[in-house]
Specification:
4 strands; Glutathione-dependent disulfide-bond oxidoreductase; Thioredoxin-like_sf; Glutathione S-transferase Yfyf (Class Pi), Chain A, domain 2; about 280 residues; Glutathione-S-Trfase_C-like; 10 helices; 4-stranded mixed sheet; alpha+beta; Glutathione_S-Trfase_N
Length: about 280
């Protein structure tokens, strides 16, 4: 048996001795990539002044899957030449705790990226947080990348896949991704549990995309916010661009219809710009 396997077995066996206390208390330095960032409390931790550019939309984000979602829509709107959708984009470095600064928390009390302010009406700026809310707001504002008639099956399908992504992705990112890549040591039970669910979700998408070019139908007119929300998480995973070794571990090549969709969207100029979007520093 290799030394790594011995270590993993020892840690897994030790973990079976854990008995939850009657009242949970945070454990300082409990390991994992985000151990020094996460706390069981909300709110600002330090004073902060966020910069503001000259464009109508001000984005404060990071090029993670949730951040890339908004980048894609903004770049697709730019591709259409919509002047009122111009934006400035600033980097919120979550490893530096920028998300807990006072100005950012004023926009997003949940202290997660992305966040956006719409200054189209300078006297009544609109603050938004949650990637799904931002995309749906912008799609409605510019009447793009969504079904036009809200009283149709297509619109119902659109809403359903949008909500599916928002509800399902935490199992992929916070579940599978965390325990596979960021936990302090490998733990079989959570990895097995979240791998099972992740593969079920990949299989769901693969079966759906066997009969649909895009999430809500065939043809360019059916490329929508639903695709933009799902692709940064599941499309990039299918292309083996998320979590080192995850592609082989999950056998992503076996999901042929998901592969076709993921590759098709990855060739869009707006998507390519979105993935590599340069974010300005906030300080």
């Amino acid at each position: 048996m290799s030394s790594n396997n011995t270590l993993n077995n020892t840690l897994n066996n030790a973990n079976t001795d854990y008995v939850p206390p009657k009242v949970w208390q945070p454990v300082e330095g409990n390991g994992g990539k985000f151990a020094n960032t996460n706390k069981p409390t909300a709110g600002a931790r330090h004073q902060q002044t966020l910069p503001k550019g000259d464009n109508p939309l001000q984005l404060y984000s990071l090029n993670t899957p949730n951040g890339i979602k908004v980048n894609i829509l903004l770049e697709e709107l730019a591709e259409l030449g919509i002047e009122s959708a111009k934006y400035d984009a600033y980097k919120i470095d979550i490893m530096e705790n920028d998300q807990f600064g006072s100005d950012f928390v004023e926009i997003n009390p949940n202290s997660k990226i992305p966040a956006l302010i719409d200054y189209s009406d300078a006297n009544n700026p609109v603050k938004l947080f949650e990637s799904g809310a931002i995309l749906m707001y912008l799609a409605e504002k510019f009447n793009k990348f969504k079904p036009q008639n809200t009283q149709t099956q297509k619109y119902a399908t659109y809403l359903s896949w949008v909500m599916w992504q928002m509800g399902s992705a935490p199992y992929l990112g916070g579940g599978f991704g965390h325990f596979f890549s960021y936990a302090p040591y490998p733990m079989q039970y959570p990895i097995d549990r979240f791998t099972m669910e992740t593969k079920r979700q990949l299989d769901l998408l693969d079966k759906h995309l066997a009969h649909h070019e895009y999430m809500i139908g065939d043809g360019e007119d059916n490329y929508s916010v639903a695709d933009m929300l799902i692709w940064p998480w599941y499309g990039r995973l299918a292309l083996d661009e998320s979590y080192e070794r995850a592609g082989e571990f999950l056998q992503v090549d076996s999901y042929t219809h998901l592969q076709r969709w993921a590759k098709q969207i990855s060739t869009r100029p707006a998507v390519q710009r979105a993935v590599n979007l340069e974010l300005k520093p906030i300080k």
